[in-house]
């Protein structure tokens, strides 16, 4: 198969982790006989420095011309004070929009070998933790109109945002989540607040309707406040979760954190177009940039997600995940997940090791 | 002092736990020489059965005529199918509104003796956990207008809610939270999503302004998704949290759950009027109603909050809390918090024991 990948290294540790992920990607392609073409473009701070915008048109064009995009991380203190409209994060929002990426897939998986890293007690974790949060990414209250500030009849200031979803927006994300759940544990929780919010009532009606096409998937609804509790109390009850933009932001971050190993977590942003975007959930970590302490595994696992979701290459994706598990089982770690008695590798050593064991 | 208390036992285990809380309240009043007058009124399912409404006018009148309201719990399967407009929970929303209770105080405290109950690892809990979440209760997206459903120009249905706050609403809740923080650990986190939401930007501006009058309180802002993570990662960093209605719903429930002992947690709803409402955060537990398995300690601790917040009777409130700690230290438990080697008491035995040790 031909794989045309656009790589966006970004800022901070972005280039270092991307370099190792590419080493692994090249090795996988070689092993399975795929033809890999790599292109590279700028996003975030580096793009601001070079072009005074976090998302140059050339970057959008290169992404649109590719089959999939692999991103590192963006931002850093250097760009914290610049004008809001050209902040590094705008680059990420912009590319999501340009590619129509309406779904954010956020797996929160606790690797057996890293169970000690979880903040939850062993008795709570039980057999492990393997949750996929499917978050709606370009609708809801983060983008809803009208929004802004006003002054009421008493001369008092107020500010407001609109949480809004239309049927088609709910339908496509819920449908996608059912498809994903079907490939995983066949269980889906739709997280909402329908006892209070009109927008959640519509969400539930649409989700209920979609669920009729997936009678093989165990479908549940759950209020968002209850979900925030259940993730702490009994995370093992969840397989796949689907929810709106704001609730998904909160719930996916909470789910990630209970694993205790943020440096291990990849993500995918996908849409109806052919080009999806894959990136680790951790940030650009300017404090450890250039020290070799960065953990490339989340980016390597993002490559695995890319092979699975953009190219349907499940065997290749499985091999990467199995190799990461093996490397962990053999006692290799990076600084962020280091434990007594294990061997601490640098970013490039870890990348090379995973590639060599594929 | 004269204490005129209106008691609302409600449904399920409500009457059982209220009975024990009243035993303790009577004992405290006797000990400190306060004159206690008790009145009782109906709310929730019992009120629906008797008057076909979850909140009869007589209940509102009695509450308004009192100095403070002590509530048990409401709801149960018996009333799950009835018309939405007269569901038991409407009684609670109604009485909050009638009393102008704009602030919900939700302590999440891990009792030393119950550390094992927490779902978090000992290393995460460290010295313990004592967080007060101050949630705005009658504004924000749960009440914001406009709300509802519509059909767009393409004939597609959509639904929407409005998250809105005006300056005065933010000011009063943030001011109250600063006052509470000052009496506790002098640290306040204002939880919002100002990097995305206009309403949070106004919230922050107002909170920043109020903070100038409280330079003795260590003031921080934090995004709600980060807060959901930090509660799991390092809950010890929090003392007092203030936030809006929706964020507070999620964050206060998550904070409660990490203690692992929902049956121990009281709450207060207060406003600018003189009458506040105090209740345990757990529900009406119809499954154990009448079995004697209910834990009355959250309601007893709600009495403690009532004495502190409605009457400024700190010594009396402290005595109740110290006595609960003592009873736990001596190895007495109820079914929900039972551990090996401890003595399990019934609801009425626990109430009588606390009262006898005051
Ligand atoms: Mg987030
Ligand atoms: Mg709640």
TrEMBL record, chains A, B:
<comment type="function">
    <text>Catalyzes the oxidation of 3-carboxy-2-hydroxy-4-methylpentanoate (3-isopropylmalate) to 3-carboxy-4-methyl-2-oxopentanoate. The product decarboxylates to 4-methyl-2 oxopentanoate.</text>
</comment>
<protein>
    <recommendedName>
        <fullName>3-isopropylmalate dehydrogenase</fullName>
        <ecNumber>1.1.1.85</ecNumber>
    </recommendedName>
</protein>
<keyword id="KW-0460">Magnesium</keyword>
<comment type="similarity">
    <text>Belongs to the isocitrate and isopropylmalate dehydrogenases family. LeuB type 1 subfamily.</text>
</comment>
<feature type="binding site">
    <location>
        <position position="249"/>
    </location>
    <ligand>
        <name>Mg(2+)</name>
    </ligand>
</feature>
<feature type="binding site">
    <location>
        <position position="135"/>
    </location>
    <ligand>
        <name>substrate</name>
    </ligand>
</feature>
<keyword id="KW-0432">Leucine biosynthesis</keyword>
<feature type="binding site">
    <location>
        <position position="253"/>
    </location>
    <ligand>
        <name>Mg(2+)</name>
    </ligand>
</feature>
<dbReference type="InterPro" id="IPR024084">
    <property type="entry name" value="IsoPropMal-DH-like_dom"/>
</dbReference>
<keyword id="KW-0100">Branched-chain amino acid biosynthesis</keyword>
<keyword id="KW-0560">Oxidoreductase</keyword>
<feature type="binding site">
    <location>
        <position position="106"/>
    </location>
    <ligand>
        <name>substrate</name>
    </ligand>
</feature>
<feature type="domain" description="Isopropylmalate dehydrogenase-like">
    <location>
        <begin position="4"/>
        <end position="354"/>
    </location>
</feature>
<dbReference type="InterPro" id="IPR004429">
    <property type="entry name" value="Isopropylmalate_DH"/>
</dbReference>
<dbReference type="InterPro" id="IPR019818">
    <property type="entry name" value="IsoCit/isopropylmalate_DH_CS"/>
</dbReference>
<feature type="binding site">
    <location>
        <position position="225"/>
    </location>
    <ligand>
        <name>substrate</name>
    </ligand>
</feature>
<keyword id="KW-0963">Cytoplasm</keyword>
<dbReference type="Pfam" id="PF00180">
    <property type="entry name" value="Iso_dh"/>
</dbReference>
<dbReference type="GO" id="GO:0003862">
    <property type="term" value="F:3-isopropylmalate dehydrogenase activity"/>
</dbReference>
<feature type="binding site">
    <location>
        <position position="225"/>
    </location>
    <ligand>
        <name>Mg(2+)</name>
    </ligand>
</feature>
<keyword id="KW-0520">NAD</keyword>
<feature type="site" description="Important for catalysis">
    <location>
        <position position="193"/>
    </location>
</feature>
<feature type="site" description="Important for catalysis">
    <location>
        <position position="142"/>
    </location>
</feature>
<feature type="binding site">
    <location>
        <begin position="283"/>
        <end position="295"/>
    </location>
    <ligand>
        <name>NAD(+)</name>
    </ligand>
</feature>
<keyword id="KW-0479">Metal-binding</keyword>
<keyword id="KW-0464">Manganese</keyword>
<comment type="subunit">
    <text>Homodimer.</text>
</comment>
<feature type="binding site">
    <location>
        <begin position="76"/>
        <end position="89"/>
    </location>
    <ligand>
        <name>NAD(+)</name>
    </ligand>
</feature>
<feature type="binding site">
    <location>
        <position position="96"/>
    </location>
    <ligand>
        <name>substrate</name>
    </ligand>
</feature>
<comment type="pathway">
    <text>Amino-acid biosynthesis; L-leucine biosynthesis; L-leucine from 3-methyl-2-oxobutanoate: step 3/4.</text>
</comment>
<keyword id="KW-0028">Amino-acid biosynthesis</keyword>
């Amino acid at each position: 198969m031909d794989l045309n990948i656009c790589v966006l290294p970004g800022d901070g540790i972005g280039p270092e982790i991307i370099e190792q992920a590419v080493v692994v990607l090249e090795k996988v392609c070689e092993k399975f006989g795929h033809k890999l073409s790599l292109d590279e473009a700028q996003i975030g701070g580096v793009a601001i420095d070079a072009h005074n915008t976090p998302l140059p048109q050339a970057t959008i064009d290169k992404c649109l011309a590719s089959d999939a995009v692999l991103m590192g991380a963006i931002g850093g203190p250097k760009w914290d004070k610049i004008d809001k409209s050209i902040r590094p994060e705008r680059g990420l929002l912009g590319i999501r929009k340009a590619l129509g990426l309406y779904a954010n897939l956020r797996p929160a998986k606790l690797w057996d070998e890293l169970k000690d890293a979880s903040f939850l007690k062993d008795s709570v974790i039980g057999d492990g933790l393997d949750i996929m949060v499917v978050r709606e990414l370009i609708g809801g209250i983060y983008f809803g109109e009208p929004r802004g500030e006003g002054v009421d009849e008493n001369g008092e200031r107020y500010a407001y945002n609109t949480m809004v979803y239309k049927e088609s927006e709910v339908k496509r994300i819920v449908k996608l989540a059912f498809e994903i759940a079907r490939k995983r544990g066949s269980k889906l929780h739709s997280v909402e607040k329908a006892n209070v919010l009109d927008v959640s009532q519509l969400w539930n009606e649409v989700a209920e309707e979609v669920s009729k096409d997936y009678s093989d998937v165990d479908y549940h609804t759950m209020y968002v406040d209850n979900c925030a509790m259940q993730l702490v109390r009994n995370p093992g009850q969840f397989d796949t979760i689907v929810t709106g933009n704001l609730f998904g932001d909160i719930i996916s971050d909470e789910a990630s954190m209970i694993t205790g190993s943020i440096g291990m977590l990849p993500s995918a942003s996908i849409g109806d177009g052919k080009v999806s975007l894959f990136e680790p959930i951790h940030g650009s970590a300017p404090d450890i940039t250039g020290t070799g302490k960065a953990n490339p595994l989340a980016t390597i696992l993002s490559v695995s997600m890319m092979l699975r979701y953009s190219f349907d290459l499940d065997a290749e994706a499985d091999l990467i995940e199995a190799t990461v598990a093996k490397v962990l089982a053999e006692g290799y770690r990076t600084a962020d997940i280091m434990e007594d008695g294990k061997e601490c590798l640098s970013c490039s050593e870890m990348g090379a090791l995973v590639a060599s064991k594929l």
